[in-house]
Amino acid sequence: MSIILSSASWRELWDESWQNARNVDPLDSSDVIGEYPTQIAKGYKRNISLRNGIDLTLHRYTFHEDVITLDGQACEAGCLEWVFNLSSTFKFWDGSYVTDGQHYVAGMLMPGGESLDIARDPRIEVDIHLKPELFRTLAGEHFHLLPLELQRMVEGDESLPFSSLQTTTPAMHLVLEQILNCPYQGLTKQLYLESKSVEILALYLDSVMTQQKSKLAVKLQLDDIDRIHQAKDILLQHAEHPPSLLELARKVGMNDCTLKRGFRQVFGTTVFGYLHDYRMNRARKLLEAQTMSVQEVARAVGYASVSSFYAAFRKKFGMNPGTHLAANRRKGI
């Protein structure tokens, strides 16, 4: 049997828990534990704010039953979040599963929809939160060398709510265990956790940049990159009635295979994956403007079939476009 909750009910239960949160470290008022609502699980979340601008959330709890969270609305997250899952299995709104020993980055827009937490194993997890501008400061002049997916998330691209899943390396696992089992208090604890949080980010970057180098073994020429950007501009100019890949390649003077491969290298997605993300984000903004009906928005972003538009929007954002429009009207935005 499963426990089924709306996202609003879930938030209400946690609001009550955090009101009764207790301080863990007598020398650090920013280190607090909130007991997991007893109706759902046994255990806690521990929040620690560090002086370097990084916030940690440490998870240790076991669900009584599988937990299904329904009807979530998309919302702004306010920060980037590195999620390192050491033990448990859960399902994203898009149907993909995260298992133990995997990690990912959550972006600035948290999608709505249905999620599933599986009660089989205890949840042990370390989350690292930081503002995009802080991450850019940490990356410094090397920001442009980062994987394009990560660059887009840092720059606030809401079409990427989550990064691709990555495998946690043994070196990462060791540092995560050290964070979970930090033996210190007060200033010593702050210094220790600050250094460990930066270390885990460094290990993460080393892993993804190593993968990036292997993917970019075939280097594009500058002229190719210019043509690929030109192809992107043409694609967006004709987003309602886009050219085929072959037509687009001819317009910019490339063969279609080079354009297909190069577009993914430059933008981190396929030609028509990029177009789909553009259409969906434009549709969301048109709905939020509240000047058009769902049918009008569907036509405006190039969908002849309203049912196809509904399916694409729900898959992207975890809710129907009509629900999103109604929610914004209630909020008055």
Tags for this entry?
333 residues, alpha+beta, Arc Repressor Mutant, subunit A, 3 domains, 8-stranded antiparallel sheet, 5-stranded mixed sheet, 12 helices, 15 strands, 46% helix, Homeodomain-like_sf, HTH_AraC-typ_CS, AraC family transcriptional regulator, DNA-binding transcription factor activity, transcription
Structure description:
By secondary structure, the protein is an alpha+beta fold. It has three domains: 2-215, no CATH class; 222-268; 274-331, Arc Repressor Mutant, subunit A. Helix content is 46%, strand content 23%. The protein has an eight-stranded antiparallel beta sheet, with helices on both faces. The model has no long low-confidence stretch (mean pLDDT 89).
Percent range of helical residues: 40-55%
Intertermini distance:
39 Å
Strand numbers in spatial order across the main sheet: 2-3-4-5-14-8-11-15
Along the chain, the helix and strand elements come as EHEEEEEEEEEEEEEHHEHHHHHHHHH
Content-based structural category: alpha+beta
Mean pLDDT: 89
Radius of gyration (CA) equals 22 Å
Low-pLDDT stretches are none
Give the helix tally.
12
Number of strands: 15
CA-based shape: globular
Largest sheet: 8 strands, antiparallel
Beta percentage is 15-25%
Count up the domains.
Answer: 3
Topology:
Layout: E1 2-6, H1 7-19, E2 22-25, E3 28-35, E4 41-49, E5 55-63, E6 66-72, E7 75-76, E8 80-87, E9 90-91, E10 97-98, E11 102-106, E12 109-110, E13 113-117, E14 123-130, H2 132-139, H3 148-154, E15 166-167, H4 170-180, H5 186-215, H6 222-237, H7 245-251, H8 256-267, H9 271-289, H10 294-300, H11 306-317, H12 321-331
Parallel strand pairs: 1-6
Antiparallel strand pairs: 2-3, 3-4, 4-5, 5-14, 6-13, 7-12, 8-11, 8-14, 9-10, 9-13, 11-15
Organism: Chlorogloeopsis fritschii PCC 6912
Domain HTH araC/xylS-type: 229-327
Protein name: AraC family transcriptional regulator
